[in-house]
Structure formats: C-alpha cells, structure tokens
Amino acid sequence: MKIMVTGCAGFIGFHVTKRLLKEGHIVLGLDNINNYYNVNLKYDRLLELGISTDLIAEDREVQSDKLTGLTFVKMDISNYPGLVSLFKNQKFDTIIHLAAQGGVRYSLENPFVYVQSNLVGFANILEICRQHRIEHLIYASSSSVYGNSQKIPFKENDNVDYPVSLYAATKKSNELMAHSYSHLYGFQTTGLRFFTVYGPWGRPDMAPFLFAKAMANGKQINIFNNGDMKRDFTYIDDIVEGVVKCIDYKINKKPAYNIFNIGNSKPVKLLDFVTYMEEEFGFKANKKMLPMQPGDVKTTYADTSQLENEMGYVPKTDLKDGLAKFVRWYKEYFKN
C-alpha cells in the first residue's frame, strides 16, 4: 500500500513508519520538525530511517538512502496550500495522522500552537481526505480526553465532555470533526486514544525520559501529586501493533467512524514506576514531591476489549521489560 504518515519524525510516527517500511509499504512521511523539544532527536530518528538530514529543505521531497520506499517532506500540516500542492502528484490508500502538538502542560503556556496544529491542521487533513477520496484516515487521539473520570477502566463509550486541559479539548474536537466528515462524505475514520506511550526514541517531555535524564545527571526528579498517581504505561511496540492492525480494518456501519483505546490495561503507581527506573539505573532517585499540576489527571486506565474483539489486539510488553529496553537505549544514545 501507499501510506502517508504525518509526524513521522515524532516518537510514535517514527516507529510506525519503520514498521510500515519493514512490511514493504511505500510511505510518504511528513513532519515540520518543530522545536517543542530538541530537534536533534527528530533528525536522528530520520537518519535511522535513511533520510539524509543535510538534504532536508522546506516543502521538498527527500528520498531515503536505504532504498526502503520512504519519501520525506518537511511541511507543517497547517500549511493547506502546501498540502494541496503535495497531493497533486500523490495518491494514497491510507493516511496515518500522528502529527500534533502534544503535551498537557505546554498547552497552558502556548495555547495557540495547539489551535493551529491540532485544530486547523486536523481540519486540513480532513479536507485533503475528502477532496482526494482517501479511503481511510487513522488519527491519534489521547487518553487525556477522559479527564478526571472516576469511572475506571476508561471505555470508549464513556462521557468525555469534560476535558481538563486545552490539549485534551483539541483531541476531543478531532474526534467530533472526524465523525462529521465520515457522516457527510463517507470515508472511514479511526481514532486511537493512546495511553502514556514510552520506549526507545521516546519524547523528552514525558515522565520516563524526564526521570532517566535527571537520574543520569544526578538531578532531582519531580513527583507530582506527591506520587499519588497511576498511569497506564504502554510500550511503543504495542502501540505500533495496534496502529498497524487498524490499516486493514473495515468499519461495517454508517458513518464509518470508530474510536479505540490503545493501552496496556495495567495501571502502575507512579512511585512503583520510579522504583523500576531505580532498579535499571542501579541507584535511588532524588525525589522532589510536588502538588498536582494544572491540567493533569490522577489515573489513566484503558479498557482495550473493543480493540481486542475487533482486531485481536493484546499488549505483550510488561512494564519492567519495556523500561529495561528504554533505559538501555537511553544510555546508548546519550553515552551515559
């Protein structure tokens, strides 16, 4: 198949692209390589995919030098004329839309970045799908849409009308926008609510990376809500497996719209997570206890039975095993 992956220099996008190429698909990867976190990590991911970073220029196609069937374009999804121009000579079977401005806390400081990327950019992708008769749009939502729901585990049919951050609100908006386009124009949309993804090449703004960096450099780690939190940490390979399973999934209803949780379904106490990190590093972390951050939630817990029933999805990676792989990568990458 010929598949477009937006956000291909990001954490999940990189791993999804790598898997698709391994399976023999032809991929066009799109990313604006913004500076939300260190761009060198994004360029290194692209290098891993065979994209020579010294050749990257705005709105220009770059071929992978690994002969893998990958083409990369540096472009912002909010650039609608650029997308229109790109699609004049391209035809895709599926779009996997993973480009977005992530992070709950950053949305408190820079709200308009989220509006531009997560709302305007998503509307652009939907319009491109409509105009070019894309059969299937798979896109990233988030467990953040569940807010501070007291009903656990989280199920796809739970009420998600009360987001507690702008980031979560934009992801809920994406789901509503996708539903309207599936209803009006008949193409298939599949939204994936990711639960706390971690693993090699991970995002530097997320807890596993932040903790590893602090511990490796003898710094304090920040423990919010005094450690009284649980997260459904999901290893990247399990996330990728769920995304790939969705490619061939056909929704036999109208509108052709669906939402799935992708998580590990085993929430872990934050302090237990820290203990596992300490075991991997071989020493105790210097912990700084802090109150709950605005926009954060106390617990995430995915019910993935719908994805299991529809596609046979079962997460396979135990947290300890996944953390061992992540820490090993971190030490190798940063030479710690």
UniProtKB/TrEMBL annotation:
Q: Name one Pfam family in it.
A: Epimerase
| PANTHER family noted in UniProt | EPIMERASE-RELATED
Q: Which UniProt keywords apply?
A: NAD
Question: What are the NAD-dependent epimerase/dehydratase domain coordinates in residue numbering?
Answer: 3-263
Q: What is this protein called?
A: Capsule biosynthesis protein CapI
Per the record's keyword annotation, is Ubl conjugation included, yes or no?
no
